[in-house]
Predict the 3D structure of the following.
Amino acid sequence: MFERPRGGERAVLVRLLLNGAEESQDAAEFRDLAASAGAECVALVTGRRQAPDSRLFVGSGKAEEIRAVVEAHGAELALFDHPLSPSQERNLEAFLKCRVVDRTGLILDIFAQRARSFEGKLQVELAQLRHLSTRLVRGWTHLERQRGGIGLRGPGETQLETDRRLLADRIRQIRLRLERVERQREQGRRARRKADLPTVSLVGYTNAGKSTLFNALTQAGVYAADQLFATLDPTLRRLDLPGAEPVVLADTVGFINRLPHELVAAFRATLRETREASLLLQVIDASHPDRDAVIARVEAVLAEIGADEIPQLRVYNKIDLSGEPPRLERDAEDQARAAWLSATTGAGIDLLLAALAERLRGDAVHGWLSLPPMAARLRAKLFGLGAVVTERTGPEGEWLIEVRTSRGNLEWLRRREGLRAEWVRSGFEIPEVSVSSDDVGV
């Protein structure tokens, strides 16, 4: 039986175009991923296939080619730019006589290297254990044996069963710790909502320059480098805007094409900073040769995590590389929709700050709500946010509440607490429904 090698970073990259797909920038991204993980890329094997092979993913002929390349270069590792099933990984390792890592395992390895905070390390470990739980068999036959020795013979669990049980226990412990961390983060979010501090979240493709822009705006000094997933842990800082109230700026983990579901699930607490934001700054690499496709991928991930309805301001970064001049683009309603800048040189940063102040200056809303008795929980939330100016009881026992808060709080109440459009009496809008003060006489 094949015993997996424990070390070695010399890697052969394997990438197939499936079902007639066309070549794209994903090949360069795959190389960057491998380099970010610390692999020494010695060869790239490509090919086309209509559908993956159930046993080896690549088919027997291509597997022979890959084995020849591995032997010729003395590689200890084969990296596949595709998700592999546990049986496919096991079969490939036995056939190639080297370690096999799929795309998900590669990204998880990068995340394990980058995580710095306690929460980030827990999230990465949770994702890794979930990925590992289906891959315990691998090439080690000893895991299927029962323990032997004096006093250990007879009925009992196999080594593999023991490992599975210990793995499940560890996953349960990590989940409990992450729940405690999430409760602490929720306390901070409640405090910001009560203080009416809008949150602006930086989102975008990995290596688009989010952390560099974050440092340029806040002088936070967070780690930034020209590599994929340079930073993982969310960082929040106060940002003062010209002629507007201060906001909280959040730097979050970067997105990537085909982001593994294990990471989306494990990083749900971190991604919540994005889902609860008042405004998203989508940072885009203006020099990227396939810029529109990258934007589409980011939009897809935002939809996957439930943040696609949050207002956006696009930031085209790295104009020092693309040759574009700093400028501010506006839509048909004369609202700022995109800023072109360079976070490295500082060109256009003042335009972004002005656009943020413009977008958030009109964020405060003031109006009336008529809440029925069944909306007692929503009423309590309004008081908890400090959003209630006055309150009185209506003729049918309803609460007539004067509210002053931010649009972000209003959207949060709609999504999380069931604020309905028919309860609005005057002064502000619930999405897709507008009620003016002329319609009612409060």
Summary: The chain is about 40% helix and 20% strand. The two ends are 81 Å apart (CA to CA).
